[in-house]
Amino acid sequence: MGFIDKYTGKLRTYKAVYTLNNILQYKKLKHNKALYKKYKLDQSIYSPISSSILKQLPPQPSPWLDAPDAAQKLKVSQQLEQFAQELQGKIKAWPDNGFLSLEGFFGEEEVDKVNTEIDKLLESHKVDFNYTNKKIMFAFRHSEALKAILYTPALTSILEFILGRQVIPFQTINFIKGSEQLAHSDSIHMTTHPLGNLIAVWIALEDTDKSNGPLFYYPGSHKLPYILNDNFEGGNTKYRIGDFVYKKYEEKVQQVVKEEQLQKKTFYAKKGDVFIWHANLLHGGSPVLNPESTRKSMVIHYYAKDVICYHEITQRPALISNYPISEVQVIEMD
Ligand SMILES: O=C(O)CCC(=O)C(=O)O
């Protein structure tokens, strides 16, 4: 694990530091050359990037299930028939809900393997908790067993159907204890142009209950306007990211939850259950009531291919080491 993963100091807030780092990470950014051209973004692939620049570009269509005619399109979709009847129903509810759950998707043995793998990686110091002391980032890079989970065809076929594009696993986050993360949309962390081209998969690596900080979410909240840097006062300047930008973002989310009177739901999971959510669904981790408890889980964030991927909160382009080399590909939906 690199120094930067544990580091929380001021250097993190200077945009120039990231620009320098981007130059060193050329290989993980080079796919953006073609993408910036495709979307008519006229700037260096090393420069900061944010929605305030991207919203000035020519408008782009949203993912097909975010379009107003999504329900109609799903009704007549032949490709939907590849999925079991029950799953078809859940996908049909996606445009309204912005989430779906797959009970018992992974078996006991598969989950045990993931847990053993994480224990081993922690023991051998190949991975560690990052500066939050709760998150183990990118463990999949060190483990074939974890990679196999990310690329499970029965899973990626659902994600690709929902987004209408090939998906690229960008990051994994493993938790041993509940995250207690306040409500947020992943689109403040992992953002795309066009918006909505990210999808998250949460896997229960053990049961969750009231005591160990279960996942919570706000059904339908993905349909609200995206909360991006221009929608709250984050204290950003031309050269720096505001010191309290994420706190200010969380406060803005709380305000929206209140104003919109959103109804909170909790996902009480059984080991092996999967919860998939939309790029803009508000969600988080409930308070951990029993401090001794564990809540092992793994989140996988997938970006769609052939869109610009970046981090709105820190205004950095996303460094992607496993970007597929193939040509621009859009899966045609019937
Ligand atoms: O697992 C949790 O408690 C929350 C995870 C989360 O919010 C995320 O990965 O975006």
Automatic annotation (TrEMBL):
Record GO terms (molecular function): 2-oxoglutarate-dependent dioxygenase activity; iron ion binding
InterPro entries: Phytyl_CoA_dOase-like
Keywords associated with the record: Dioxygenase, Oxidoreductase
Cofactor(s) recorded in Swiss-Prot or TrEMBL: Fe(2+)
Keyword Nucleotidyltransferase: no
Lineage: superkingdom: Bacteria
Protein name: Phytanoyl-CoA dioxygenase family protein
Organism: Pontibacter cellulosilyticus
